[in-house]
């Protein structure tokens, strides 16, 4: 396993957001974490990246215990998070956002890699020197993902990337995630769009009140009646 | 969509900013036209004083823009430079006097102020483990920086006394131009201040460190996710703060020849007024604000006497923030995406 989570506990004051959660993500896997609002999915990803401290358990990445490392240290080891709400820097230009993506690198391939991002997302290239605030929601998500790719992670965690995107863009986004995965990245995907997430993922975990309520192969979860009752009920066919 | 900010992002409101500058320039041009040489002389003096204010205002802007933190130690860093420089000469600690002793003493003062600023960073940010941008927790660095202001002031009073002292420089070179008297040190200070600020603007806009600082200014968490060790970048800001205050104080000391343990309070409050006037978080705003406050001060003294200065400056400030709450050059979104 590339990422191993053992008995992870996360508390925010009195809220016990993640309770003794254990799971793993293999180097060639897409794993999706599902669950209703407040189930602890975002708290989990934030704790895995080091943005919020853990109150118990261990996080092991590529064989190394990273539980005490800062977010930048985790990034340098190959763990990247694309947070909820895209979080691009709107006071920077599109190009400057991408330059921030390579902030953690000091090799010579930077210019080439940035060019590849522009090739992949021509819309970003067209707005290279404009404030990132002029981008549409979909373009902002492309920028956020492109920027995270530039750090050359081995595992990319995405927190509800489809939030607020039109159905067409959601389709393209999921294609992109599959593409990134095919290029050799492991993916840990938190999603509200259960159906799409289970389609591209190999395995899924359903969180409920901070615990893993259900865990298994994505195909099985798609057919699982308990999941359908608890989670897929509304708004999903 | 949110408007672009003052630096870095393309300036959408560039015409508004140009307008502000033109209007201010027109007001002073009118003053010169009506008042002739006497007023012109006041304006020259005001610009020189403004150079001091704007340098300190930029120091305030940096920490408030990036850390959302009003650094109250700034006046004491300013004062430390002057008092240390005077103390070193007075107590004969330099080992020599005359010649370039004044310059060596001032440089030593700047070094001490910068070191003091880094000490403040340790105690206000690092040891207190402050989470940047947290609304409740940023009161803590504010209060501890106020503590440092008082500690530094009283350390200086204890060791060097509370009297105002004379710091003389062995030259007096006035330049006479179109019948105006321009002090050479004053001209140098205006040049220095503008040069340093221009360099700072370049660093913020075009370097890796500058981009990191601007990203922290907008959202420290994004910066951290992109690999910026925020706790390692923060000392750079305090270093710059110390250098800017030291430079301003060195120029002030050479220009006016007076130092006292309270010299920073006066300049600090004017610099805060300048920063707010120009627009919190905008470096060019701080520059404009500094010049406007300097000019307003000299002209107030000329027309209404010394006692009117504070009333007029703070009155002007209140009017500006009522009419234009974000200040002359400020970004629309106060609190986020500054610098």
Q: Beta-sheet strand percentage of chain A?
A: 25-35%
* Most residues in contact: chain pair: A-B, 30 and 28 residues
The Rg value of chain B, from CA coordinates, equals 20 Å
CATH architecture tag of chain B = Orthogonal Bundle
**Number of continuous helical runs of chain A:** 10
Tally of DSSP β-strands of chain A? 10
CATH 2nd-level architecture of one domain in chain A: 3-Layer(aba) Sandwich
Distance between the termini of chain A: 33 Å
Judged by helices, strands and strand pairing, the structural class of chain B is mainly alpha
In CATH, the topology of chain B is named: ABC transporter involved in vitamin B12 uptake, BtuC
Radius of gyration of chain A: 17 Å
> How does the overall form of chain B come out from the CA principal axes?
globular
CATH classification, class level of chain B: Mainly Alpha
Major sheet description of chain A? 6 strands, mixed
Short description:
The complex is a heterodimer of chains A (237) and B (339). Chain A is α/β, with parallel strands linked by helices and 237 residues long. Helices cover 38% and strands 26% of the residues of chain A.
Offer a few descriptive terms.
heterodimer, A: 237 residues, alpha/beta, Rossmann fold, six-stranded mixed sheet, four-stranded antiparallel sheet, 38% helix, 26% strand, B: 339 residues, mainly alpha, ABC transporter involved in vitamin B12 uptake, BtuC, two-stranded antiparallel sheet, 11 helices, 4 strands, 71% helix, globular, disordered N terminus, disordered C terminus
How would you characterize the overall build of this protein?
- The complex is a heterodimer of chains A (237) and B (339).
- Chain A is α/β, with parallel strands linked by helices and 237 residues long.
- Chain A has a domain at 3-87 and 153-232: Rossmann fold (3-Layer(aba) Sandwich), CATH 3.40.50.
- Helix content of chain A is 38%, strand content 26%.
- Chain A contains 10 helices and 10 strands.
- A 6-stranded mixed beta sheet of chain A has the order 6-7-8-3-9-10, sandwiched between helices. Chain A has a 4-stranded antiparallel beta sheet with strand order 2-1-4-5, with helices on one face.
- In chain A, β9 and β10 form a beta hairpin.
- The radius of gyration of chain A is 17 Å and the shape is globular.
- Chain A starts with a strand and ends in a 5-residue tail after the last helix.
- Mean pLDDT of chain A is 91; it is low at 233-237.
- By secondary structure, chain B is mainly α.
- Chain B has a single domain, classed as Orthogonal Bundle (ABC transporter involved in vitamin B12 uptake, BtuC), CATH 1.10.3470.
- Chain B is built from 11 helices and 4 strands; from the N terminus they run ααααβββααααβααα.
- A two-stranded antiparallel ribbon of chain B has the order 1-4. Chain B has a two-stranded antiparallel sheet with strand order 2-3.
- In chain B, α3 packs antiparallel against α4 and α3 packs antiparallel against α8.
- The longest helix of chain B is centred in the first third of the chain and has 54 residues, at 14-67.
- Chain B starts with 13 loop residues before the first helix and ends in a 16-residue tail after the last helix.
- Chains A and B meet through α2 and α3 of A and α6 and α7 of B.
